[in-house]
């Protein structure tokens, strides 16, 4: 960094705020987040190429790629390694494990994107991105964030469940309860005035989906 220059300070992104824009080199060429406006995006970071846990994750993401495609979700990986390192790793996964990696991997050597998204956690590592996941909706808003330590591999099943829930919320304007999966009952917002409470009690009296005036499901 040039003497006298001040390193930019980034505020951590927040749910329901615009996802920080970026332009970066990747294994699929230069990409911008705005290139994917209109689609869901799952942006995820990994600590480093050629590491055991990261390799198992990328194999799992690749094998589930059709499931992400069905949901119109664009996967974008990221680490602070270079494009040549990413390409060598992708080639090794193809040659040694027989798995093709179909999604782009950002080369974030200067940690610009990682800093914008709060992917570097000094308590875990000062140079490697933790296993973070950002779910970005078609309007470019962050809808959910998950952070994992370097030692814990991610569950593709859970990531797909999160996407299913977020897309359901986005489409139906309803909430999803604990352990929800597609096809299960959803949850209506709780009344926030006495008038709304009394109206709900009156309308739903005796109905089986009225667990309590503040807990009403769709079935």
Automatic annotation (TrEMBL):
Active site: 54
Swiss-Prot/TrEMBL catalytic activity: a hydroperoxide + [thioredoxin]-dithiol = an alcohol + [thioredoxin]-disulfide + H2O
SUPFAM superfamilies xref list: Thioredoxin-like (SSF52833)
UniProt-annotated binding residues for substrate: 131
Keywords: Antioxidant, Cytoplasm, Oxidoreductase, Peroxidase, Redox-active center
Molecular function GO terms recorded: thioredoxin peroxidase activity
Keyword Nucleotide-binding in annotation: no
Location of this chain's protein in the cell: Cytoplasm
Enzyme Commission no: 1.11.1.24
All copies of domain Thioredoxin, residue ranges: 13-168
GO cellular component: cytosol
Subunit structure: Homodecamer. Pentamer of dimers that assemble into a ring structure.
Family membership: Belongs to the peroxiredoxin family. AhpC/Prx1 subfamily. Belongs to the peroxiredoxin family. Prx6 subfamily.
Note from the entry: The active site is a conserved redox-active cysteine residue, the peroxidatic cysteine (C(P)), which makes the nucleophilic attack on the peroxide substrate. The peroxide oxidizes the C(P)-SH to cysteine sulfenic acid (C(P)-SOH), which then reacts with another cysteine residue, the resolving cysteine (C(R)), to form a disulfide bridge. The disulfide is subsequently reduced by an appropriate electron donor to complete the catalytic cycle. In this 1-Cys peroxiredoxin, no C(R) is present and C(P) instead forms a disulfide with a cysteine from another protein or with a small thiol molecule.
Function: Thiol-specific peroxidase that catalyzes the reduction of hydrogen peroxide and organic hydroperoxides to water and alcohols, respectively. Plays a role in cell protection against oxidative stress by detoxifying peroxides.
Full protein name: Peroxiredoxin
Lineage of origin: Bacteria, Bacillati, Bacillota, Clostridia, Eubacteriales
């Amino acid at each position: 960094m040039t003497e006298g220059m001040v390193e930019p300070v980034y505020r951590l992104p927040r749910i329901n705020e615009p996802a920080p824009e970026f332009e970066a080199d990747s294994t699929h060429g230069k990409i911008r987040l705005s290139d994917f406006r209109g689609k869901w995006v799952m942006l995820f970071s990994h600590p480093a190429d050629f590491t055991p846990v990261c390799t198992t994750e990328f194999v799992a993401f690749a094998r589930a790629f059709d499931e992400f495609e069905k949901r119109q979700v664009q996967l974008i990986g990221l680490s602070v390694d270079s494009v040549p390192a990413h390409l060598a790793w992708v080639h090794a996964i193809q040659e040694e494990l027989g798995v093709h990696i179909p999604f782009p991997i950002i080369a974030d050597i200067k940690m610009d994107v990682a800093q914008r998204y709060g992917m570097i956690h000094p308590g875990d590592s000062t140079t490697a991105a933790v296993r973070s996941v950002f779910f970005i909706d078609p309007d470019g808003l962050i809808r959910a964030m998950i952070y994992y330590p370097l030692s814990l591999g991610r569950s593709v099943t859970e990531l797909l469940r999160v996407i299913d829930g977020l897309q359901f919320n986005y489409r139906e304007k309803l909430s999803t309860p604990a352990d929800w999966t597609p096809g299960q009952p959803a949850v209506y917002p709780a009344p926030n005035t006495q008038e709304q409470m009394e109206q709900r009690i009156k309308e739903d009296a005796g109905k089986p989906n009225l667990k309590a005036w503040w807990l009403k499901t769709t079935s």
